[in-house]
Amino acid sequence: MTDAQPRFARLLVTGGAGFIGSCFVRDVLARKDGTLVTVIDKLTYAGNRANLAPVEADPEQAARLRFVEGDISDPTVVGPLVRDVEAVINFAAESHVDRSILDPEAFLRTDVLGVHVLLEACRSEQERNARGERAAAPRFLQVSTDEVYGSVETGESHENDRLEPRSPYSSAKAGGELLARSYFVTYGLDVVITRGSNTYGPYHHPEKLIPLFVTNAIDDKQLPLYGDGLQRRDWLYVSDHAGAIGHVLEQGVSGETYNVAGNNERTNRDVVTTLLHQLDKPWTLVRRVEDRPGHDRRYAMDSSKLASLGWTNKMPFETGLAATVDWYLQNQDWWRSIKAGEWQDYYERQYGARLAGSTDAG
Ligand code: NAD
Ligand code: TYD
């Protein structure tokens, strides 16, 4: 045990077998401060028990982790889990924009209705608290995204800006966080919300830009760049994102929303140039393909509110990207097993015609 005791000793982490959720779980348990973590994860195509392998390899940490395979939309599973904890951190989501364009329904089920089920379970605990049956009602942290602001051509989004989501994914995420906020306003539930920017790092599912391009490039496969590749994203290293969420969990003011920026804005072309350089692979692998419909041109956030709460990121982009590239080189079993099975159908659906009609990326 360390000296600094966390505010919440028993956590329910939804989506804790995914990319950012598993980083949060690994980092919390590695603090060795006695925190108990229950993970609920549906293990969709994006969920992977192997993401928690480092925890399970350490008996002390493994003893403080309980893993439940289950759906956040199922109140019979969620209710008893929320009963046991002091805080719920909701990472669980369908998370990929391109899949939301191919098939939006699952996004509404998990990213909106699933949030409702979690909030109702917290509200039941609040009622138990009012009856004197438990200490405090659980704190609910909703992990949201900068994509709820929509495409930001100039300047930076602030927490009170209008939400203008433009994809089924970002619209569902906006619905989920608005619902969470409504439970603070209407029922006085202890809710905090984070809006993180584009996250990258180890254990990132290979459907997303950086891991897709790194893993394809390792195999000398084509890299499908959407449109002119001049879209801009603000890149946030995964342990910085998880750390910011932990910081808001501990320090965030109830009812407030916090932007989590990376402060590493790059065009997609710049990102691809850097990762190819780090892999020593040629630009000729890059193909210009048909653009994503409704493609958001740019995301950028101001995160001075989070800074004033005392959080700063640690990882510079080029260092984080080099560590990420290295991780994918060292952990080929992890991503090669994901790129088997369901992946092949998805890849053909998303990229088959695009790559067949692709042109030189210049
Ligand atoms: P991910 O797709 O890697 O992981 C999502 C996890 O949720 C998976 O383990 C999946 O099995 C699980 N899940 C999906 N549906 C579920 C359900 N109905 N019940 C229980 N578990 C379910 O996503 P990620 O990149 O780790 O993102 C985590 C959260 O952070 C999401 O809410 C996402 O919207 C948000 N976010 C992501 C980014 C990013 O760049 N990756 C940026 C900002 C915010
Ligand atoms: P992505 O990683 O899907 O994150 P998001 O859409 O949530 O920002 O995509 C990042 C950027 O990379 C986005 O502008 C779309 C672009 N992109 C490509 O050009 N090709 C691809 O194959 C993918 C997956 C993304």
Q: Please give the alpha-carbon distance between the first and last residues.
A: 55 Å
Q: Tell me the number of helical segments per DSSP (H or I, 4 or more residues long).
A: 14
Q: Which residue ranges are poorly predicted, with pLDDT under 50 across at least 5 consecutive positions?
A: none
Give the biggest sheet.
Answer: 7 strands, parallel
Reconstruct the topology from this structure.
Elements: E1 10-14, H1 19-30, E2 36-41, H2 53-56, H3 59-62, E3 65-69, H4 75-83, E4 87-90, H5 97-102, H6 105-130, E5 139-145, H7 168-187, E6 191-196, E7 199-200, H8 209-218, E8 223-226, E9 232-234, E10 236-237, H9 238-251, E11 257-260, E12 265-267, H10 268-279, E13 286-289, H11 304-308, H12 317-330, H13 332-338, H14 342-356, E14 359-360
The structure holds nicotinamide-adenine-dinucleotide and thymidine-5'-diphosphate.
Textual characterization of the structure:
α1 crosses α9 (238-251), α8 (209-218) runs parallel beside α10 and α8 packs across α12 (317-330). The termini are far apart. This protein has 14 helices and 14 strands. The strands form four sheets. The protein has a seven-stranded parallel β-sheet, sandwiched between helices. Strands 8-13-14 form a three-stranded mixed β-sheet, sandwiched between helices. A two-stranded parallel ribbon has the order 7-10. By secondary structure, the chain is α/β, with parallel strands linked by helices. Bound molecules: nicotinamide-adenine-dinucleotide and thymidine-5'-diphosphate. Thymidine-5'-diphosphate (TYD) binds at residues 97, 198, 208-209, 212, 224-226, 231, 233, 268, 292.
